[in-house]
Design goal:
Blueprint: H1 2-34, E1 36-41, E2 49-54, E3 59-64, H2 73-102, H3 105-113, H4 119-126, E4 129-133, E5 139-144, E6 149-154, H5 165-191, H6 198-230
Antiparallel strand pairs: 1-2, 2-3, 4-5, 5-6
Length: about 230
């Protein structure tokens, strides 16, 4: 019976450690997702084009100065692609750094080991394309699986006013990003692993640790029942 008690105590300790590690990793994921980066191109306040992205790899805000729209669709689209990618890239770098600062060596190793081993597959997934549109069809965006915006287009009436254009641009861009990354997520589901983005890798690692923890807790319950029977 003493041996059974020792096993139960050890199992409880390991389960508690895993629970603590999972909680730390979950907090790290949330911290990484919460970071933001803003990029702007401007010759003056009225011409300003600004984009803000979060660590989730999505645009959270697009701001257009009152004169920016008057630059015409091609010039505006070029500015939007540039500032959006600057914001997305900056947010991604900050998110990766936030993850590494928030977790210990074991989690850093998990992040590194989760990187896909096939360079050709990584390249193909990064080259995937996705298209997104605003609900009213005024804005269409295209994105790559690498997490970059490749094009923004406007309908014939999109730049005639009416407000809300920045929000429409963000919605279209995020839909395009999601569509471009969909093959990665589908592959992740098929392989039972995570995609190429840091926060996704750590989230999957958290899931694996939580799965191990559930198994240990189940074993603990069984050990407890055996101890009861021995008593």
């Amino acid at each position: 019976m003493d041996d059974a008690l020792d096993v139960a105590a050890q199992t409880r300790r390991i389960a508690a450690e895993l629970r603590e590690q999972a909680a730390t990793a979950t907090s790290a994921v949330r911290a990484a997702q919460a970071v933001t980066c803003t990029a702007s191109v401007s010759r003056g306040e009225r011409d300003e084009v600004t984009a803000t992205a979060a660590g989730t790899g999505r645009l959270t805000r697009v701001h257009l100065g009152p004169a920016a729209v008057g630059a015409g669709p091609e010039r505006l689209a070029a500015s939007l692609v540039r500032v959006s990618n600057q914001a997305l890239g900056g947010a991604g770098q900050r998110a990766a750094e936030a993850l590494r600062q928030a977790v210990g060596p074991a989690w850093r190793e998990a992040l590194d080991s989760a990187t896909p081993a096939d360079p050709d597959l990584v390249e193909r997934l990064a080259a995937e394309r996705g298209t997104g549109r605003s609900p009213d069809g005024d804005v269409t965006a295209e994105a790559a699986g690498s997490g970059t915006i490749t094009a923004v287009r406007f309908s014939a009436t999109a730049l005639r006013g009416g407000g809300g254009l920045g929000e429409k641009i963000a919605v279209a861009a995020n839909a395009a990003l999601e569509a471009a990354r969909r093959p990665q997520r589908e592959l992740a589901a098929t392989l039972g692993r995570d995609d190429a983005y840091g926060e996704e890798r750590l989230r999957a690692s958290v899931g694996r640790f939580q799965g191990r923890m559930d198994t240990l807790l189940a074993e603990l319950n069984q050990a407890g029942r055996r101890i009861t029977e021995l008593e």
